[in-house]
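Archive transcription. Copying these from loose printouts into the bound notebook so they stop getting lost. Printout 1 of 2:
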Amino acid sequence: MNRLRRLPIDVWFEPIIILAVGAGYLLWYRSSTFTATEQASLDWSTLRTTILAHIELTAVATLIVVVVAIPLGIALTRPALKRFETVAVNVANIGQAAPAVGLLVLFTFWLGTGFRTAVVGLVVYAILPILQNTIVGLRQVDQRTIEASRGIGLSAARTLFQVELPLAVPVILNGVRTALVILVGTATLSTFIGATSLGTLITTGVTLFLPKLLVSGAILVGLLALVIDWLGRLVELAATPRGVA
């Protein structure tokens, strides 16, 4: 009980919200009467494929963003490349400034439609939070701590991996969580360029005026975002060194 009380409130409260919303949706689903189109789209075999496609799209985009943004953020905090920080952040900000649908459509002229184009668009759209948080996390490490580690004989590389990055982990992972939630929501728009996602339910519901299908798509996207955000919070909590807020 004491350990539960020491946990941040969002760690145990968010699953309660997820379970409550999920249970409410199941009750509504069981008590509702669906049209043939709604039934076909919400059949478990079809729905499972759609959900897995949405998760795959989000996971691939997130992996690429992490692999690109974190090393780039680290490089931009080093003295040799520090002068390029403002330029890099402003370029990454273009993805956030542009409308997501417009960004995806523009990439179709270059790459065509489908999964690959959706991934590229999502990567461009979500790179800023991780890049910015990596830079901020490393910048906020106390300079005296860095100097002390160098003073006891650690190289610049060992100081980075053994001192700076562990202390910056909470901020960096918070950026990853933010990017994940952005990607889950934005991935719904990939349906406009031929990539399967939960957005298919939403667009079909709007196009054919099927409110139940539209509501189902919106709720499932929301639940998926909440679950991924909670899992990211658990990883963030586990990866944060003791004594680091």
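Printout 2 of 2:
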Amino acid sequence: MIDPATINLPNFIANWYGNPDLPREPLPEQHAWIPAPLRAWHEISRQWSTPLVTLKKMISPEEIEARDGKAIFMIDPGDSAWAFDMNDPNIVYEGQLYEGWVASSESMTEFLKHNLLNEAAFNAPATRFSEAVNFEALERTLEPMTEVSFGGWLWPQPGHRIYMNSVMVADVGPSIEESEPFGNREGFASVQIGSISPKNLEYLDAIHQVEWFV
């Protein structure tokens, strides 16, 4: 497995989205209470005019507010939210509207790397997706990549994993049944793959038992 600690955020972003096109500016001192990894993320990500997070929304430092010992720093279009602990800013919580918070097994630093790779799988110049990849085809699909040993999320459902190499990222999760109660489909996985070039995904055309969508 790939150790998340070996992933360099600025290097990955530059390889994926090109060199930064805006200057790096440190956040004002008034945001010093925000966890250092999150402050660094905002300073780094603002060097690219291309949005690096589109599936979810990173709350700007100016809008992060502390409430009941936690501060929400990211949300999704549904009811999911992510917060850090005011007493221990390295702890990340996952939450749902009207439901309680659950502490993530990932530190803030690891979480931000996980989020970047998850987004990259969808925001890449070239993408492929299938909601039903059987396990035999999954092995061939992931052969060029190595799993990253992230702690794991509850979002969008438990069981998602990240695989990558220098030019590809894959988000792999359970395949969901098409009818109620919408449980996990046995023997299949949902796969979203992104790459910096369409040529890197051409090998998928030889996996005939999978219907890939661009």
